[in-house]
Amino acid sequence: QKFVDEGHEENSIAVGLQEGGYRTGFFGKYLNGYPAGDPTHTPPGWDEWYGKLDGQKLYDYSINENGEEVSYGSEEGDFYTDVLSEQATDFVGRAAPEDQPFFAYVAPTAPHGPATPAERHEGAFADEEVPRPPSYDEEDVSDKPSPIRDAERISEEDASNIDDYYRQRLESMLAVDEMVGSLVDELEAAGELDNTYIFFTSDNGWFEGEHRIRSGKNRPYEESARVPLFVRGPGVAAGTTTEKLTLNTDFAPTFAELAGVSFPADGRSLTPLLRGEESSSPWRSSVLLEKLPQEDSSEEEKGKAK
Fold this sequence. Notes:
- By secondary structure, this protein is α/β, with parallel strands linked by helices.
- 29% of the residues lie in helices and 11% in strands.
- The model is unreliable at 296-306 (pLDDT under 50).
């Protein structure tokens, strides 16, 4: 609500790219709290808008489809990730062959709780267990803050619950894998795959027993701070990696530079890193992690704490 009230929707990447001649499409989860009372609200800058309503639900939900609220049920064909895939792939199939450049923001809810897998994927990871690095059920926490020092060791029941949720999350991601494959295939069929940048990332990590934390995401540890970031596109050499510290705030200036447009943005463009070039100024060497003092009471946190 604060984001909207302060007018930030008027300065989003969508507005900047649209003004720069891009055709824009949004598919999936928008900001927390959306739609804030108006299920038909379509933010400026988007030529096509498919904003998910009803939080993280993968069945029995609604979508704001270009200003019209459309409801979906509980049939197999209503599974949200598949519906999202169809909508995004259809957009790419229509936009890619055109001369006008396009930008698609595709935001599935998986593997966020409830992490429901598609029916065809249920049981695909039935034998998997959460990785158990040294930080898992950490033995010596004497050097940690009191919430960690005072935490009990992970019981067999805790471990079983953690493993169960891990399997659900893995299985829920299989439909996302298929969606990515469909988008790549659509770009290739249109002859635009080699002319398109694809960014694959996430919003936060998730604890699964590390440091005796059974679930959650709001502690200043690597397990929740780090997220995947994969990029392919023109000038990005296959199989290369970088150890440079990047942040979500870097996406906007990166997209602006790649698109050849200009709009206000925090962060730094990742373009030099993508192309294997040296940055013109020293790169960041640290990142500030902060946690608000109030207790986290998100539905996912409470559900996993039971």
